[in-house]
Design a protein that fits this description.
homodimer, FAD/NAD(P)-binding domain, 4 domains
């Protein structure tokens, strides 16, 4: 077996190591355009920020290691230029001396990755405008950081954009963030990003959403970014994080099928339209494991697993990739935002029926010092209760709950299963009723009809004539500190005595701070004949939506 | 509906609140012997240690709150003395004035909890010997802490015992731990407790396993504990944490069925042998959700959920309790130990076929500062790969992995599913190949035959004549720093060149530090015709067993 692998970072390096474990006899050639293999992509922003102090830490493995330990024929600074599928050969250019040679293969694995998008704007090639993909990029930006840099502009408020912003600020660089969409972190639902926006602002970051760079100019002091709004930003460093596109040129030129968004088409075995050619990682179009249909998910975890699976299939094993569910996480300025599965935006776009609930539990027992509150949004099918997606934002413990829910989604569990989840409880780690159980209770209560709820957007969408009575069941003190306009206040503990003040003619929406007292209020009212529903997630969820509403 | 609930802490209070949400009309009487309801049991040790500074934090809810918000007829300082099942009435003693009255019921929920065992040893009733169950106990111990206490003895090295030890040491009290079993934390497998023992010792705790208190005596300076070994320990405070027994007296006297270990028998609806009487919490015998069969699991999470479920059934809903899987966690001196599902000990006792693997991954990407190593043990069925149990010990991130595995066990997932788990990865939170994936890879490799492994106990059990060649594939430096007696050293990167030094006649057990290089070595050797297997978890796992071996 002569296996050639194009690309030596996450998917390619994983495929190579797996291939060698499966076969000592195979000839395994790993072709990598850059000087390094398997570096820590996800660490690049933190090296820029100085959080990761040594550059050597970013090298997960080296060509020497792959040669010594796995007997891989590693060819760095080598660019695959063309695939001849008839003769089963790849044309490879040695970037050191410019020579070109043909490398025959029995099986080929493409792991070329995805390239950061560099929009063809005026001035885009000026010095000081970067994208961040590899160690070469990071070295160039790093050099610039030491040159008395004052202002930076990051274009694109996705995961990498925000990590860059944090690390630049960490270096003492005043940073402006420009994002085309009407929110930061576009994969998340907009209201879930409100705490992230607050954290960014609190750290001095200027955020410009619904804004776009239209060009770049050189000035005496550095660079100017022209914005669509007419404003201009001055900066000595501009980093673009506006997304990536699959590096599909080689595949397209070879006549392999690609999807409408450019991802190389593969089947569950990760074979392309040519059964002797596999493809893995950021360059492929895979399947959405939750909703079905195609998905492009440029994440390191899936790339590594795909590398393994492609190698399995090369050696005749029936491994299948189950598709990606898009589990992702961001840490920024002490906040964590994470998601798994489908967002409400995606579900709405695909016209899939779903319901959402919000809870705001503490990450561990409230009676133990240091409890941090999180907001957890759960998305599920209205009929079956199957969990479709989850998002969380907060501090400690957010990663844990998203990983539990990622596992629950993988297992096709329902919200009823979450009620019964038996998670580890000691007061430093969780609660007797974990946030996962709480989300299960609220969602299951909704589906069983015990706990009818209305979402904030649905409430806000009601026409004036339809508007229900808003009943705030918090304490007078909480009410005075801020409430939804038009609400009346009857504290929960007085409600049974004061139902006479309410009309059974008009629908009632109850709310409290996080939803729990509002739920008890609906139980009391409904059993007395009132048409009461609870505002899901209470005033805290309402406040998450406020900036979203202000913007629209 | 007249519902009477006996016991107002976790299960009882949950049942009461749920009952009221289900029915505004029901008469709900909550009978509690103590002065408090729903206090934070799991916080008691931390209040003693001063970690939880305010006693009021321990009150999760109050009788007043239950009255005002849930209209529960809360009767504290009231002891249920007898149940008359024929007339459906409970005889209740008012502990304030000694009066006794009959309280009729339509449905009864028993939530009496479990009482700490107080063995009938000589001197057991001396002042200064405590158990820890409620706020009254904690107050009595607390008073004693301020009286110039120097030495304490904790009898019983279970979860509560170790939490007590930590908190006493935190107060500057020199503490000796006495445990009857041959290990601390008896629910865990012994080798998994090695790091906990090390942490206890490093904090100055004297640990006496296979030791028992046989009596207590008063001296001038305080108390003396007589030990089975003949040794005596002097102390001013003795706390017993030797286990609990279900408070089943009321149930037994009423003729309700109890199990052999005293737990009140219930069906999946949590009804006792009398369909009008339910029982929940630490007093019941429930089902082992993983292995089937009866189980007594005195944990707060299950108690809370059982309370809800019993209340559901009281009001005609078909809620079922699925059984307990024994998820538990301990934090002690900066270490975390946690488990879920069955242990190897339990599986062996029940003669269930199983396999175990060990991994020692970092809790997040190694290239990001602050990565902490954990040891994760995974137990699974050899045929199906179904996950039966998991244990982990380490620092940060242990709780997350156990919660993920608890969810996987609940969903009856297999080790093959763990390979495909898509968990949240950014370098502060995890790795592209998460510890969960690593455990899945190693276990699936074992079951597929790609990665044959031998466990340390199996290796040690081999007779001299059967002993394989032990091949240490670490670097000479690692080898020199410590290795298994009799091992020969061929570093992994030299192995392909030096296989001539090995005989194909004798079985080979390869090992490295954590198992990964050993795995690669077995792949190399087996493909060259050697009978090679890898030592699961490598030298680090071997070292976990060393103290266990020394002891036996």
């Amino acid at each position: 077996m002569r296996l050639v692998i194009i690309g030596g970072v996450a998917g390619g390096a994983s495929a190579a190591a797996r291939a060698r474990r499966l076969s000592e006899d195979a000839e395994i050639v790993l072709v990598e355009r850059g000087p390094d293999v398997s570096f820590a992509n996800c660490g690049l922003p933190y090296y820029l920020g100085g959080v990761i102090a040594e550059r050597s830490k970013l090298l997960v493995t080296t060509p020497e290691r792959l040669r010594a330990r796995f007997r891989i024929d590693v060819r760095t600074l080598s660019s695959a230029e063309a695939i001849d599928r008839k003769t089963k050969s790849v044309s490879i250019r040695n970037l050191a001396d410019g020579s070109v040679y043909d490398q025959p293969y029995d099986k080929l694995i493409l792991a070329p990755g995805a390239a950061p998008i560099r929009p063809p704007l005026p001035g885009i090639d000026l010095e000081g405008i970067f994208t961040l993909r590899n160690l070469h990029d990071v070295d160039r930006i790093h050099t610039r950081l030491h040159a008395g840099l004052k202002h930076a502009v990051v274009v694109g408020a996705g995961f990498i954009g925000l990590e860059l912003v944090e690390n630049l600020v960490h270096r003492g660089i005043s940073t402006t963030l420009v994002e085309l969409a009407d929110q930061v972190l576009p994969p998340l639902d907009p209201e879930m990003t409100t705490p992230i926006v607050a954290a960014l602002r609190a750290s001095g970051v200027e955020i410009l959403t619904r804004e776009a760079a239209t060009g770049f100019r050189k000035t005496g002091g550095g660079l100017l970014v022209d914005l669509r709004s007419g404003r201009e930003l001055s900066a000595q460093l501009i980093v673009l994080g506006v997304g990536v596109r699959p590096e599909n040129e080689l595949a397209v030129a070879a006549g392999l099928e690609v999807g409408p968004r450019g991802g190389i088409r593969v089947n569950a075995s990760l074979a392309t339209s040519d059964p002797d050619i596999y493809a893995v990682g950021d360059a492929i179009e895979t399947t959405d494991a939750v909703l079905g249909g195609p998905a492009q998910v440029p994440l390191a975890g899936p790339a590594n697993r795909q590398g393994r699976i492609a190698a399995d299939n090369v050696f005749g094993r029936q491994s299948k990739y189950r598709g990606a569910q898009g589990t992702a996480i961001l840490g920024v300025f002490g906040r964590t935002a994470a998601m798994t599965g489908a967002s409400a935006k995606t579900l709405a776009r695909q016209q899939r029926p779903f319901r959402a609930i919000y809870v705001h539990p503490a990450h561990h027992a409230g009676y133990y010092p240091g409890a941090e509150q999180m907001t957890l949004k759960l998305l599920f099918e209205p009929d079956s209760g199957r969990i479709l997606g989850a998002q969380a934002v907060g501090g400690a413990g957010v990663d844990k709950r998203i990983d539990v829910l990622a596992t629950a989604i993988q297992a096709r569990m329902t919200v009823f299963d979450l009620e019964e989840a038996e998670l580890a409880y000691a007061p430093q780690y969780g609660s007797a009723k974990d946030p996962i159980n709480m989300a299960g209770f609220v969602a299951a209560g909704l589906l069983r009809g015990d706990h009818p709820q209305i979402d904030v957007p649905a409430l806000l969408a009601l026409a004036a004539a339809e508007r229900p009575l808003l009943l705030d069941v918090r304490t007078p003190k909480e009410f005075a500190a801020g409430h939804i306009a038009g609400a009346v206040n009857i504290p929960i503990d007085d409600l049974r005595l004061r139902t006479a003040e309410l009309s059974t003619e008009k629908p009632i929406v109850t709310y409290c701070e996080v939803g729990q007292r509002g739920y008890i209020a609906t139980r009391i009212l409904r059993q007395r004949g009132f048409d009461a529903v609870n505002l899901s997630g209470g005033y805290q969820t309402y406040q998450l939506f406020e900036p979203v509403v202000r913007q629209s």
